Structure prediction request, 715 residues.
Amino acid sequence: MKNVKKHSQDSENRKQQDLEINKSDATDQLMTTDQGLKINDDNNSLKAGERGPSLLEDFILREKITHFDHERIPERIVHARGSAAHGYFQVYESMEKYTKAGFLQDPSIKTPVFTRFSTVAGSRGSTDLARDIRGFAVKFYTEQGNYDLVGNNVPVFFIQDAMKFPDLVHAVKPEPNNEMPQAASAHDTFWDFISLMPETMHTIMWVMSDRAIPRSLRMMEGFGVHTFRFINKNNESHFVKFHWKPKLGTHAVVWDEAQKISGKNSDFHRQDLWEAIENGDYPEWELGVQIIPEADEHKFEFDLLDPTKIVPEETVPITIIGKMVLNRNPDNFFAETEQVAFHPGHIVPGIDFTNDPLLQGRLFSYTDTQLSRLGSPNFHEIPINRTIAPMFNNQRDGHMRQEINVGRISYHPNSLGGGCPFQAKIDEGGFTSFNERIDAQKVRDRSESFSDHFSQATLFFNSQTQTEKNHIINALRFELGKLETPAIQNRMLGLLSQIDKTLAEKVAQGLGLKVPSSPDKPMNHGVGADADQHKYEPKKVTQSLKSSDALSMLKNKTLSKTIATRQVAFICSEGVDRAAINGMKAALEKEGASIKIIAPHLGTIKTSDGSEIKVDQSFLIASSVLFDAVYIPDGKNTKFLNSNSVVIEFINEAYKHCKVIGADKSEIFIKTNFNEKLDAEQGIILNADSQDKTFRISFIDAMGEHRFWNREEEV
Ligand code: HDD
Prediction:
């Protein structure tokens, strides 16, 4: 057992050891130029006289400024804004039956990973809380080479064919004439495209749901999206769908909150991930797979190759096969998070592609984009991208080549180098593609089995609780309400009516429009000029499954009652009850939550027993949207609370966002400012006696509910 532990630790550290050779630490060192020349004055340029012009001769100035002038590289064309962390993946038991992938065989091995989360549409400096899909890209540094699972937090994609990807991205990005709006889909070009492409409807439902505004990157699911293949030692193939399930559950904020967080702290998600890891609250996900035998390929009501479809968990259950833990922040954002290059085509023996036309196009795009982003075909040599597996081939030269390949031989076959490097046999780990039989004509076309664009959009909508449905309706009212072109709004209402009549009517009400009685026939505009339009007319296929609980975040919230890493604001002022603070703080910290003392000014305030307490944030800095719950400890607070509009706004906002509010002996304050009928059912936990332990338990239980949506209607 001891050996197993050592083995797993060694395996986990392999990438860190590999990165060590490139690290540089200036502690106790003298400053030098890039050439190693020690620098005597880094503050003044070389001049002809104290007040004279700078000299061209000043190679130190020139080196410094030249380097600075070239510090930026192109940001990613999509997923530009991202945050990443190191960690490991460990399989629970061997998956040998289905795949020969090395990292899925041995539970004692910890495979190093580097995982980057991102928004899609915004630029590098845009807000974390945009309504958007989140990228969820994992690079596994396996002994057989790098494996990248480049997924999203939504299990489906907007389009079915990579041919449409540039159009989709052009439509959602800021409009090209004025570069507006930033990191937002609520504008004409996006919805123009969407309203002409019915295949986007299923993903649109997910993006309009609260999945698109996660509470934390640590609290969202991840999906491989496409159907992939597992290949075992006998060369048998099973189809596989990948799922990441967060240990903390899947949670979101509300849209009003998201918009305010964007102003108060646009690094909200990035900071949350960073701090959790620094505090040792390592985020964790379990990897689940849906495995489908090759023979069942055509047994579904949809096409397994269609990336706009899920395989419902009720139809094929998810098997949990391992876990990923992120336990180390990068040392350098640019070197690691910015330069990491993911690619769905980075696979290892035991995993293979399917003919999903979106995946097929991605297999071209990712290497291609790194060439302009990182500037050279040698991007694999950048430390964060470097494999920990041995790497030998005859690729040579190119910009910024690091490796010094020795000898005369850079071709194969060769006799002068003894035939090296040798091709690897299958039993030596040599990769071979799955030899799928293909018997086809060359066509520029799409399969009719891809024509059902609405059924799973309806399934998703039907599976939501009423609260979640309301949020989708409001999101659509917001997004479509921002449009300047009524024809686009009308086309969208027509499409929404194909998903659910009530949904379309409610959105129409918000827009002050009527659902068109005979909407434009939703032809699929994504077809060729000479195509038989009738053939491509969207078809609804009757679904045997009417609703899937797994698709609703709120129906699954009982799975994640934990309040670990949740943030609680303690509203305090001079004279606040010290015992109440200490008691609640201890109770919350025991559950893994953390607290911040918020008071009128920074520094310290005097508490009831005369002791001083350190203030974490003043009301000028703190904002209710940055917290999960609010607690008002007993003391001489009430007078202060009643007279302070900032405090009332703070609590009002927490109330509006359905968060738990707890107060000792402050009923009068709560009752005068809020509805008299409020009680624990509504997440307002009041306490007459500040030492009552059941109060703290009730407060923590209520926090486990996360939000009290029954308050929303009233708001
Ligand atoms: Fe993509 C980046 C995920 C379709 C072309 N994509 C990128 C990233 C993620 C995804 C997570 C960021 C990786 C990182 O953190 O560096 N993309 C997806 C998913 C898709 C998808 C889940 C559909 C299922 N993507 C897709 C298509 C194409 C691209 C169809 C092109 C045909 N994606 C790119 C890209 C990016 C990229 C342009 C930009 C930066 C990069 O690759 O490295 O090549």
In short: The chain has three domains: 31-71, 79-370+377-394+412-435+452-560, 567-711. The pocket of HDD is lined by residues 76-79, 82, 116, 118, 135, 137, 150-152, 157, 162, 165, 225-226, 307, 340-342, 358, 361-362, 365-366, 369 (CB under 6 Å). DSSP finds 20 helices and 18 strands in the chain.
